[in-house]
Amino acid sequence: MLATAPGCLVTSDPEFTGPSRTAPVLLESSQRPLGEVVRFEWLGTNQIYSPELFTANVVSEDVGQPVKVALLLDYGVRNPVSKKPWRDANPGDATAPATLADGSRPLESVFNVEPLTDFSASATTVGCHRLTLVASHDFISDTTFCPKDPLDVSRLSWTVSFCERMEGGACPLEPCPENEVDCDDLGMDEPAAGGEGGGP
Known about the structure:
By secondary structure, the chain is an all-beta fold. The protein contains one helix and eleven strands, in the order βββββββββββα. The chain has one helix at about 185, and strands spanning about 25, 40-45, 45, 55, 55-60, 70-75, 90, 105, 110, 125-135, 155-165. A hairpin with a 2-residue loop joins strand 2 and strand 3 (about 45). The protein is elongated and about 80 Å long.
């Protein structure tokens, strides 16, 4: 009976594939909670705020590929010069590859607003803004911080207020600008003509 019973014939060893890469997931860190409004104020020519730092943690299956990051000023607002969907950008250091089994880990970069060229005591900056941290395994270029794969991206945003403080009073919190564009809207498959820089 057993000799005539149908069976499976294994002709080769089974193939086992490794893990697939996942999109990075940015997680809020205790250093800069997302819910609070960060105020940047100046009085005359004197800045009266301490440097504020922005960072996050990340979880991802990287398959040996580092996680790239950048801090964007007003993601969703079209830059009138570069036509990119942010006012300015500050790239950070890539975070070494890891696996999902490693869990949450801190990014290599801790960002400050100072390198953002459009973020100064000027009429274009006064008021409410968003700082958006973006992470991906591969951006279109070193100055175009849109992901090559639109599914391979994660973003975190903070609300910041920048204004001149009056004697004896605090800055009012004004509404932030509405989102009008993003990477998908602009079809960011090529660097913008007329300049590679993230800012004007």
